[in-house]
Amino acid sequence: MAKKRVSNSKSKQFNLKGIGRLIGRGILWFVLVSVLWVIAYRFINPPITLLMIMRNIERKSDGKPFKTEKSWVDFKEISDNMKRAAIAGEDQKFVHHMGFDMTAIGRAYTANKVGNGKVKGGSTISQQTAKNVFLWPGRSWLRKGFEAYFTVLIEILWSKERILEVYLNVIEMGDGIYGAEAAAQSYYKKSCRNLTRSQAAMIAACFPNPIRWTPLHPTRFIRHRHYLILQNIRRLGPLKF
């Protein structure tokens, strides 16, 4: 009996060590692949995102045709009005923080804890970029953990200009519309290079829910957001990265 117990104990220790090694290798491979992935996208423009794929699956299930309107525009060619409107509407501390706005996160946590039926977000442009490019939509703690991890990586490995460039080229800006160029063409029949301050602010006002809201038919709430974004743009002044 004693020998069997010793044998079983050794077998368990061996299994635990084997599982530990397997987990360690898995973590190492994940870190290596994710770092290389982020480095690659520093130079390569992301061709597609998981959100684009999921939205098309939803469209197909609703009996609608596939739709992915997008056209990449380099950072220097995007209207300064669009850049400033995005920062003014979504993340006014973007230029200064290292990926996270702890004040905004704290406010969102307090508001959501009180609870009024609406979920308030505190994500920065960096966090939204990490989520859109590398992850799937959702609000689980697992996805939030990965979002924080990729946010740290892009803040370390990308410039602020690159983060904003990718953000303004991949985020959802309407039903099947992704990026500032597709949005500008769809809503104003012009390139994002030529957007006025008011037009850029109206597009940015719809960022929180671009499927529900559209610049073409702004609600009272969107008109108010549009006004606030214009005010914030004036306070921001020239962008300095």
Describe the structure.
With about 240 residues, this protein is an all-alpha fold. It has a domain at about 80-235: Penicillin binding protein transpeptidase fold. Helices cover about 65% and strands about 0% of the residues. The chain has helices at about 1-45, 50-60, 80-90, 100-115, 125-135, 140-155, 160-170, 180-190, 195-205, 220-235, and strands spanning about 170-175, 175-180. The chain has a two-stranded antiparallel sheet. A hairpin with a 2-residue loop joins β1 (about 170-175) and β2. The radius of gyration is 22 Å and the shape is globular. The mean pLDDT is about 90.
Oligomer: single chain
Q: What percent of residues are in strands?
A: under 5%
Provide the CATH superfamily of the domain at 79-236. Biosynthetic peptidoglycan transglycosylase-like
Shape: globular
The overall pLDDT, averaged over residues, is 90
Helix/strand order:
HHHHHHHEEHHH
CATH topology group of the domain at 79-236:
Penicillin binding protein transpeptidase fold
Name of the CATH class of the domain at 79-236: Mainly Alpha
Measure the end-to-end span: 71 Å
Q: Provide the helix percentage.
A: 55-70%
Counted beta strands = 2
Biggest beta sheet summary:
2 strands, antiparallel
Ranges where pLDDT stays below 50 over 5 or more residues in a row are none
